[in-house]
Amino acid sequence: DTDIDDRYGDLDSRPDSDIPEIPPSSDRTPEILKKALSGLSSRWKNWWIRGILTLTMISLFFLIIYMGSFMLMLLVLGIQVKCFHEIITIGYRVYRSYDLPWFRTLSWYFLLCVNYFFYGETVADYFATFVQREEQLQFLIRYHRFISFALYLAGFCMFVLSLVKKHYRLQFYMFAWTHVTLLITVTQSHLVIQNLFEGMIWFLVPISSVICNDITAYLFGFFFGRTPLIKLSPKKTWEGFIGGFFSTVIFGFIAAYVLSKYQYFVCPVEYRSDVNSFVTECEPSELFQLQSYSLPPFLKALLRRETVSLYPFQIHSIALSTFASLIGPFGGFFASGFKRAFKIKDFANTIPGHGGIMDRFDCQYLMATFVHVYITSFIRGPNPSKVLQQLLVLQPEQQLNVYKALKTHLIEKGILQPTLKV
């Protein structure tokens, strides 16, 4: 105990400049790729590795889209857990905290608690009819927030009980590190799934726009980049940033046009208890129906036509793509600053040529928050099906009171005729 106290006492008192470098990750590039690219320079070798792995990941992404919404939700959950693991592992290595009592267990316990809270809220919102049939689930949903708080409180008490003399500052470092990591990963992945429930198009267009911006900015920077963009990320250039912006806006506009044609992508994802599965069938809203728009005078002369037919969602896609290409990269800059602060090149070595999962999704989390705020601010209106689901879980007396109040309201507005009493 004395040796451990001395070790952590010294560690707690060291300045930030004394933070040791994390050993570089091992190269996980498949041997077949190494042999095939052995004759190339390191610059072109990295270009080919990144390109091949990018195409592989995009192909797998298309396959998961084909498999449906539930698989996409599992994908988001898996990415969230992996990102949490990568960031927490950096904290353990930087602060050499593997031997801290209980802390590795507590980090994963808090992840479980926060996921239980957020995904329990989702179940209560979107699966009310299913919950109504299961008595045990009714209890869990009714007291969901109290159970979530009790679980978190148990973890909080375990943390306090784990505090050991001379370890205090280091333990609070890691406590804060865990909670910030939870804020970055779990809350944002929850928003991604919320966007998915609004319609798969609200999931696919923003995510694909960030991917497009990442790829095209890299290509423009690789071939034409000369002017450094920001010191936090020395390889980023103005040429890549500007080229990525225009490419992303054009891509988002075209992707929105293609996806708006199909109910599978535009209909809200709903759980149907009668078929016990997710369904994407509906009458598309006005956002996904072709509308005629008058062109500005300079475009009329250029295109030689008075109007153009567009899906209204295409106009929204311009806002989404603009954010993905102008503000989204700041998520990457933030991640670059984080890595420079702790003297690491990548979050992990999960994907050869790309680094860790967090290296690929640093911009996605920022995008998820924007899309959720955009939907709630400019798109979402009252959802009749969700209101009906909430009414179905009420007691019969409460449902009757709602019916009487709604009937009185409709009569006062002249929509219903008052019934004559005999």
UniProtKB/TrEMBL annotation:
It is a multi-pass membrane protein. GO terms for cellular component: endoplasmic reticulum membrane. It is found in: Membrane. InterPro entries: PC_trans (IPR000374), PC_Trfase_euk (IPR016720). The keyword Mitochondrion does not apply. It catalyses: 1,2-di-(5Z,8Z,11Z,14Z)-eicosatetraenoyl-sn-glycero-3-phosphate + CTP + H(+) = 1,2-di-(5Z,8Z,11Z,14Z-eicosatetraenoyl)-sn-glycero-3-cytidine-5'-diphosphate + diphosphate; 1,2-di-(9Z,12Z-octadecadienoyl)-sn-glycero-3-phosphate + CTP + H(+) = 1,2-di-(9Z,12Z-octadecadienoyl)-sn-glycero-3-cytidine-5'-diphosphate + diphosphate; 1-hexadecanoyl-2-(5Z,8Z,11Z,14Z-eicosatetraenoyl)-sn-glycero-3-phosphate + CTP + H(+) = 1-hexadecanoyl-2-(5Z,8Z,11Z,14Z-eicosatetraenoyl)-sn-glycero-3-cytidine-5'-diphosphate + diphosphate; a 1,2-diacyl-sn-glycero-3-phosphate + CTP + H(+) = a CDP-1,2-diacyl-sn-glycerol + diphosphate. It holds the Pfam family CTP_transf_1. Pathway: Lipid metabolism; Phospholipid metabolism; CDP-diacylglycerol biosynthesis; CDP-diacylglycerol from sn-glycerol 3-phosphate: step 3/3. This is Phosphatidate cytidylyltransferase.
